[in-house]
Amino acid sequence: MEKANDIILIGGSAGSYTLIIDMIEALPEVFSPAIIIVIHRNPKFTTKIEDTLSARLKKKIVQAEDKATILKGEIYFAAPGYHLLIEPDKTFSLDLSERVRFSRPSIDVLFETAAEVYLDHCTAFLLSGANQDGTDGVKQLQQMGSKVIVQSPTEALISTMPRHAIEANGHVEIYSNRQIISYFRNLK
Where, by residue number, is the active site (predicted)? Predict the structure, then answer.
């Protein structure tokens, strides 16, 4: 398997799960970028989100593991209870440091570390959520030349997260749910 030269990040919280499923479902059979997803999950509850989605969507979906190489065309979820970081050698690192904006895993942590490594070979989507996680990460991604797409707050089930990122970061691309799904459907 080949290391991913391009990545797509997806950050979501409350209200984002259904759209994330639609995004993965829209993917073509073969695509090049690695897709890395942070969704706020409570580590106290065992979930089999990766196994459930793999079976339902007929795509290989795994939990990111510490020191694992980020591979082309793979779909990863951040483990509940750990921050997910991208290392300079394009591997994952799991971290138990303090929560960021009440969250671990934090969208900001993933976005900020990915921006430093992947620069303009990174596209990030920030979706529905009830806190402000992702806002600082969006700023870092923009500064490093990454493309940032924020879900339209009018279509987000909970608009706090996308609305705050838009207000705090000035120019970001705002996509409707239909545009987001179309992006994934046309991925190569």
Answer: 13, 40, 133
